[in-house]
Predict the structure.
Amino acid sequence: MSIRHSLLALLSEGPKYGFQLRQEFEASTGDVWPLNVGQVYTTLDRLERDGFAESDDLNTDERQRNFRITDKGEVELAQWLRTPPDLTQPPRDELVIKVLVASRLPDVNVYDVIQVHRRYLVQLMQQWTRLKEDEALFDLAFALAVDAELYRLDSVVRWLDAADGRLRRAAFESMTDGTVAPARIRRRIGVPR
């Protein structure tokens, strides 16, 4: 998430103080992503240094300064909003790494690893759904943020299902095509040596 661009977006509505920006950022994201006020001031200082924002008086305590977006900041914000994020490289997802590592370890049942994580993700989805049911009528930003999280978690569960199926097919095919599956795979699917 780009805090700097989010703050620029809030500044495009009109001049604001740092603490006000923190409150508005949290409200605009449905209070799902809390923001440290120190991070706000650090980001504002960088925006000012880069010419994307300006404040009333540089000699005043930063907590008292009123910030506004510059023309250069407006161009930066517009460009950011129109530029898709770089998703060409898969992220270093800890869960994916766990499953890949577990599939190589001889004494680890990768299907158990998958099941533990699948169960956890489903529980998280249930928690988010309950929160959404309680709050969604009152806060559109919160409902949208929860929807995004539910879709993300659902995609991870679907990946775990696909990984489970692929691993099982690979183990089965290695036994039926005349090759001998490694002992670690035979043990995982319950085939004797």
User: Anything to note?
Assistant: The chain has two domains: 3-82, 94-189. The longest strand covers residues 66-69.
